[in-house]
Design goal:
The complex is a heterodimer of chains A (429) and B (528). Chain A is α/β, with parallel strands linked by helices. Chain A contains 19 helices and eleven strands. In chain A, strands 6-5-11-8-9 form a five-stranded mixed beta sheet. Chain A has a four-stranded parallel beta sheet with strand order 3-2-1-4, with helices on both faces. Chain A has a two-stranded antiparallel sheet with strand order 7-10. The radius of gyration of chain A is 22 Å and the shape is globular. The chains are: A alpha/beta (429), B alpha+beta (528). Chains A and B meet through helix 14 and helix 15 of A and helix 2 of B.
Chain lengths: 429, 528
C-alpha cells in the first residue's frame, strides 16, 4: 500500500521545506487558494467522506459547512494536537516528521471557512514537537506560505502553536478552547456549538492533526481517489498505534477496514513470546474492551467497530496476552480517569474516584461479589449525565470489563488476591 | 410566548426563561445547585436533569431554554434515577457533619436528600476524601472545602458580580477545591453574598457561626437602613434579637445582593445604649418619668410657647432615617396643630464612609432622604433654623431621630442651637444630643415598626415590625400621635397603614399608593 500520511518514511527529510516543496509541497494549498472557491473546497472534502480522526468520526466537510458564511466576527481554526488518549502516539510523529503537511492542511481549512488565524493546541509534554512545528512555521512564514499574504493571494493566514499544561481533558474540543483562552480546562455546555461560539466567542472549527493532514492529499488527488481507499463511508488510511504484547509494536498507516486479526498477527508479528491473545483495547482506553473472539473478528474502521459495541476512537490497538490481569488493566484505566477528570460535573468528579477505590480493593482481593453490580450501577449513573464524555469514557470500559471478564473478578474475590501476581508469601519461599 | 408542557401541565413562559424557571411558574420544583438566576449557567451540578421529549438523553433544565411545544418530564423514572444518582455522588465525599454545621436546616443537600434520594450510603465512611476545614478566607467568610459541592456559585459571584475573582477552583477531579490564591484573601464589600448563595455549608459567616440554629429564626421582610439604596432584606430574628440580615430579591434595587456594611449593620440596632423609658432633665441629669407625664409636660410647654411667641417659635428636625409615616405625621403636627412651618431634614453621613460604587453602595447613608424630600423637607432647612435661634424667634426644638450633636459636633451644635430654651428628643438610643435635651422619648428602631421608606431611585418599600421595641419604647408615629392628642384632644391616625393612607391623600408624591399594595418589591413614587 502507498504510504500517504507517513510518506516521510519514504522521503528523507520531508520535514524540511525544500524537500517538502520538491514533493508536491503546498501544491494543494496553491490549488485551494487560486483555483477553487470556498464551496469547492468544502464540497471536495464532503465528497471525500473524510471523517474526524480524533475519535468522534464526524464528517469534516460537514463540520466546515457549519461555520456561518457572513460572520461579522473573526473565524478561528483550532487544531487539536493534545494527543493524550492512553495508547496514542501518532500526532507526535506527524509533528516531528511532517510539519508542513500539517501547515498545508491548516491553510486549506482556513481558506475554506474564511479564517485568518489558526492555533495548534499541543499537549503540554510536546516540547520537541513544538520546536519542530515552530521551526517549520518560521520557514513557511519566511517563504510566504504563512503570514499576511499567503503565496501572493492577498489572503492572510497566521498560525500559532500553543502548548497546554498537561491535562487530558484539554483534548476535548471545548475544554481545549477554554484552555486556549487561558482559562481552566473545563468542557463547555452545548449549545452553543464551537461553530457559532468557539474560541474567544467567535465561530471556530476544531480539527484533529491527523484529519487535517489528509486534506492536502484529497485536494491534490480528488475525493474519488480518496474514497477508493477502504470502505466508502469511512475511507482513507488511518494511523494505527499498535502497542502491548505484540512482537512488532509501533505506528502503522493502514487502510481503513483492516481486519484486527491482520493487525495483531501479521503486521504486529503475533503475540509476544508465542502466548495466546486475551483481548484488545481498541480506540483508546476510553472504549469498551474486546475479548479474544471479538478481537479476532473485528474490522478496524469507524462503522465496523460500532457494530461490535466498541469504537475505532483514535486508532489505538493495545494487545493483551493470556497473562494480563484484566482487573489490573481496569484499575490502571480507572486511575487514569480519576486523575484526569476535570471535576466539573458531579457524576464524573465523584464517580471516577469511587470506581478506582472499588477496583483497588478488587485487585487486592478485598472485593465483594455485590460490588460488580455496584460498578455497573455507578457506571450507568455516569453515562450521558455529564457535560462531556469523560464520564462515559470510564463507565463504558468498566461495564465491558465486568461483562466480559467476570470470571477474573470472581477469581480475585475467591482467592483473596490477584491470581496473576506471585504472592509475597510465594516470593519469600 | 412559548407554550410548553411540564409534567402534563401547560405553561406559557417568557422565551428567555429556562426550564427550571418555567417549572417555577407551575410551582414545580426542579432541584438544582449550581444554577442561580443572578449568575451565568455552568451546568456542572447535574441535579436538574430532566427528560425532554425528542432529546436523545436527559437534559439539564438550567441550560435548556423554553421552546414552543416542548414537553418536559421532571418525575419520570429516568429523571428520578438521575436525581438520586447525582445526590449519591454529591454525598459520597461529603462529611455529613450536619450536627455541627451552621447550614443545617437550610441546606440543599439535606433538603434534596429527603425529597429525592433517601437511600442508605453505599460508600464506606473511612474512604472519604479529606480537604481543608475552617479556613478563614477573609472578609468574614469561613470556608469548609469538604462540605463544598463545587457548584462554583461563589467563584462566579466574584468573577461576574464584583469582578474581583478572589476565589477559584484548584486541583482536579474529586480533589477539586475552592480556595483563595495564597496570601490574597477575599477583600471586597460584598463577600457575604457568597455565604447566601452557597447551597451547602461550605461558606459560612464568621459573625453568625455557632450563634443560632437556623430553624429557630423567624424572617421578617424589611429594608436595609444602611444607605439610600434601601436593599430589600429579611431580618432573621429570635426572641427579639436579630441574628442576621439576608438580602431579599428586588429587581432594579438590589437584585439578589446586599453589601457587607448593610449586612453587618444590625448590631448597632440592639446596642446597650437603647432607650427604654421617657426621661426628663432634673437638676442637670436625666431621670425616668412615665409616658403620661412626659407627654403632658411637653404638650404644656409647646402650648406655652405657641401662646407667647406663636407657632413658629417651635421647630422640628427629622433625621433622614425616619420613615415616611413618621415624617408625615410630624409634619402634619407641626403645620396643623402647632402652626409652625419650621421643619427641616438632617441628612448626615459619618465622615470616612464608603462612597458610591458601581454595584449597590451609596455615599448617603440615610435610607429615606428621598422620602423626606418628597414630603417637602429640605436639608438646608437647618441653617434657617439656626438663624432663627440666633434672632431669638426659635425657642423650642423637637429632634426626631436626629443626633444633631454628633452630626454637627458639640462646639458647632452649641454655637448654632445652644441658645434654645427647650429641646425634646425622640431617639432610639441614648446619645450626646439626648444629654443636651430637656426631655427624651424612647422610640422604636426600624426592625420594630411597620411603615415605608423611599430609596434614592424613588422606590417606596415596605418595612415590617419583626418584634416589639425594648422596654417602654414605642413607635415614633405613636409618640407623635400621643403628643398631638395631648395638644388638641383629637385622635389622629397612628398606625402605619392609616398614616400612610392619610399621606397618600395629602401628598402628591404618594398619590394612589397604599401600604398594603407596596408588595415585595415596592412601588415607585407618583411622577411629579
Amino acid at each position: 500500500m502507498e504510504r500517504i500520511l507517513t510518506r516521510w518514511l519514504d522521503i528523507p527529510d520531508l520535514r524540511k521545506l525544500d524537500v517538502y516543496l520538491a514533493n508536491n509541497g503546498y501544491k494543494a494549498a496553491r490549488k485551494a487558494f487560486f483555483e477553487m472557491t470556498t464551496d469547492d473546497i468544502i464540497n471536495e472534502i464532503k465528497n471525500s467522506n473524510l471523517r474526524g480522526r480524533g475519535g468522534a468520526a464526524f464528517p469534516t466537510g460537514v463540520k466546515w459547512s457549519f461555520i456561518p458564511k457572513d460572520s461579522k466576527k473573526p473565524v478561528y481554526v483550532c487544531v487539536n494536537g493534545d494527543e493524550s488518549e492512553p495508547g496514542t502516539f501518532a500526532n507526535r510523529y506527524q509533528f516531528e516528521n511532517d510539519p508542513h503537511g500539517i501547515i498545508e492542511g491548516i491553510l486549506i481549512a482556513c481558506r475554506a471557512v474564511g479564517s485568518h488565524t489558526a492555533y495548534i493546541y499541543m499537549r503540554g509534554e510536546f516540547s520537541v514537537q513544538q520546536r519542530s512545528m515552530d521551526a517549520a512555521l518560521a520557514d513557511a512564514r519566511a517563504a510566504g506560505y504563512v503570514g499576511k499574504d499567503v503565496m501572493g493571494s492577498g489572503y492572510g493566514v497566521d498560525i500559532w502553536t500553543h502548548k497546554g499544561a498537561g491535562a487530558y481533558i484539554c483534548g476535548e474540543e471545548s475544554a481545549l478552547l477554554e484552555s486556549l483562552e487561558g482559562k481552566r480546562g473545563y468542557p463547555r455546555n452545548r449549545p452553543p456549538f464551537p461553530a457559532i461560539v468557539g474560541a474567544f466567542g467567535c465561530p471556530t472549527v476544531v480539527n484533529n492533526i491527523e484529519t487535517l493532514s489528509n486534506v492536502p492529499h484529497i485536494i491534490n488527488r480528488g475525493a474519488a481517489w480518496y474514497k477508493a481507499i477502504g470502505p466508502e463511508k469511512s475511507p482513507g488510511t488511518k494511523l494505527v498505534c499498535l502497542s502491548g504484547h505484540v512482537n512488532k509494536p509501533g505506528l502503522y498507516e493502514l487502510p481503513m477496514g483492516t481486519p484486527m486479526k491482520e493487525i495483531i498477527y501479521d503486521i504486529g508479528g503475533g503475540i509476544l513470546g508465542g502466548k495466546t491473545l486475551k483481548g484488545v483495547i481498541p480506540g483508546g482506553a476510553s472504549f469498551p474492551v474486546l475479548n479474544k473472539e471479538e478481537s479476532e473478528r473485528a474490522i478496524f474502521d469507524f462503522d465496523s467497530m460500532r457494530t461490535i459495541g466498541s469504537a475505532m476512537g483514535s486508532g489505538v490497538v493495545i494487545v493483551m496476552d493470556e497473562n494480563t490481569c484484566m482487573i489490573d488493566m481496569l484499575l490502571t484505566t480507572a486511575h487514569f480517569y480519576h486523575d484526569e477528570s476535570c471535576g466539573q460535573c458531579t457524576p464524573c468528579r465523584e464517580g471516577c474516584g469511587w470506581i478506582e477505590k472499588i477496583m483497588t480493593e478488587m485487585e487486592a482481593g478485598q472485593g465483594r461479589i455485590e460490588q460488580l453490580e455496584l460498578l455497573n450501577n455507578i457506571s450507568d449513573n455516569m453515562v450521558g449525565n455529564t457535560i462531556c464524555v469523560l464520564a462515559d469514557s470510564i463507565a463504558m470500559p468498566v461495564k465491558s470489563y465486568v461483562a466480559k471478564f467476570r470470571d477474573e473478578f470472581e477469581a480475585h474475590i475467591k482467592l483473596g488476591r490477584c491470581p496473576f501476581k506471585t504472592s509475597s508469601a510465594q516470593q519469600a519461599a | 410566548m412559548p407554550k410548553l408542557t411540564i409534567d402534563g401541565k401547560e405553561v406559557e413562559a417568557g422565551a428567555n426563561l429556562n426550564v427550571i424557571q418555567a417549572a417555577e411558574l407551575l410551582d414545580i420544583e426542579i432541584p438544582h445547585y449550581c444554577f442561580h438566576p443572578g449568575l451565568s449557567i455552568p451546568g456542572n451540578c447535574r441535579m436538574c436533569l430532566v427528560e425532554v421529549e425528542k432529546a436523545p438523553k436527559l437534559q439539564i433544565a438550567c441550560n435548556t431554554r423554553v421552546a414552543d411545544g416542548m414537553v418536559v418530564h421532571t418525575t419520570s423514572d429516568k429523571a428520578k434515577a438521575a436525581q438520586k444518582a447525582v445526590l449519591e455522588f454529591l454525598l459520597i465525599n461529603h462529611p455529613i457533619d450536619c450536627p455541627v454545621c451552621d447550614q443545617a436546616g437550610e441546606c440543599k443537600l439535606q433538603d434534596y436528600y429527603m425529597d429525592y434520594d433517601q437511600q442508605p450510603s453505599r460508600f464506606p465512611l473511612p474512604e472519604k476524601n479529606h480537604k481543608g476545614k475552617a479556613i478563614d478566607i477573609g472578609s468574614g467568610v469561613m470556608l469548609d472545602q469538604e462540605r463544598c459541592i463545587l457548584c462554583a456559585r461563589c467563584t462566579r459571584f466574584f468573577d461576574e458580580v464584583t469582578k474581583t475573582s478572589e476565589l477559584a477552583i484548584f486541583e482536579r477531579g474529586d480533589h477539586n477545591r475552592i480556595d483563595i490564591n495564597p496570601g490574597q484573601p477575599v477583600n471586597n464589600k460584598y463577600a457575604g453574598n457568597v455565604v447566601d448563595i452557597c447551597p451547602v455549608g461550605a461558606l459560612t459567616e464568621k459573625e453568625f457561626r455557632f450563634r443560632m440554629r437556623v430553624w429557630y429564626l423567624h424572617r421578617t421582610a424589611s429594608v436595609c437602613g444602611g444607605c439610600e439604596r434601601g436593599c430589600a432584606i429579611d431580618i432573621h430574628h429570635h426572641r427579639g434579637r436579630i441574628y442576621r440580615f439576608k438580602p431579599r430579591y428586588n429587581p432594579g434595587v438590589n437584585d439578589y445582593w446586599m453589601c457587607d456594611e448593610g449586612r453587618h449593620s444590625f448590631p448597632a440596632l440592639q446596642n446597650e445604649t437603647r432607650l427604654t423609658s421617657p426621661l426628663v432633665q432634673a437638676k442637670d441629669q436625666l431621670v425616668v418619668e412615665p409616658w403620661g407625664e412626659g407627654v403632658r409636660r411637653a404638650a404644656s410647654i409647646i402650648a406655652d410657647y405657641k401662646r407667647t411667641y406663636g407657632g413658629n417659635s417651635i421647630a422640628a428636625v427629622v433625621d433622614a432615617t425616619a420613615t415616611n409615616e413618621e415624617t408625615f405625621i410630624l409634619k402634619e403636627l407641626m403645620k396643623r396643630t402647632i402652626g409652625s412651618d419650621r421643619i427641616a431634614m438632617l441628612n448626615w453621613s459619618p465622615p470616612g464612609v464608603s462612597g458610591d460604587d458601581e454595584l449597590l453602595i451609596r455615599a448617603n447613608k440615610n435610607p429615606n432622604t428621598r422620602g423626606l424630600a418628597a414630603l417637602g423637607l429640605k436639608a438646608d432647612g437647618l441653617d434657617t433654623l439656626a438663624s432663627a435661634v440666633a434672632s431669638g424667634e426659635l425657642k423650642m426644638l423637637i429632634a426626631f431621630r436626629a443626633d444633631l450633636v454628633r452630626a454637627l459636633g458639640e462646639e458647632e451644635f452649641v454655637r448654632r442651637f445652644g441658645a434654645l430654651d427647650y429641646m425634646l428628643v425622640l431617639s432610639t438610643d441614648a446619645n450626646e444630643t439626648c444629654q443636651m435635651a430637656n426631655q427624651v422619648w424612647p422610640i422604636a428602631a426600624y426592625p420594630e415598626i411597620d411603615g415605608s421608606v423611599t430609596n434614592f431611585q424613588g422606590r417606596v418599600q415596605r418595612i415590617n415590625a419583626a418584634f416589639p421595641p425594648p422596654g417602654n419604647a414605642i413607635a415614633g408615629v405613636e409618640a407623635i400621635a400621643r403628643l398631638g392628642h395631648a395638644l388638641d384632644g383629637v385622635d389622629r391616625p397612628h398606625t402605619a397603614d392609616t398614616v400612610f393612607a392619610a399621606m397618600a391623600a395629602a401628598e402628591p408624591a404618594f398619590k394612589g399608593l397604599s401600604l398594603a399594595n407596596l408588595g415585595e418589591h415596592g412601588v415607585d413614587l407618583a411622577a411629579s
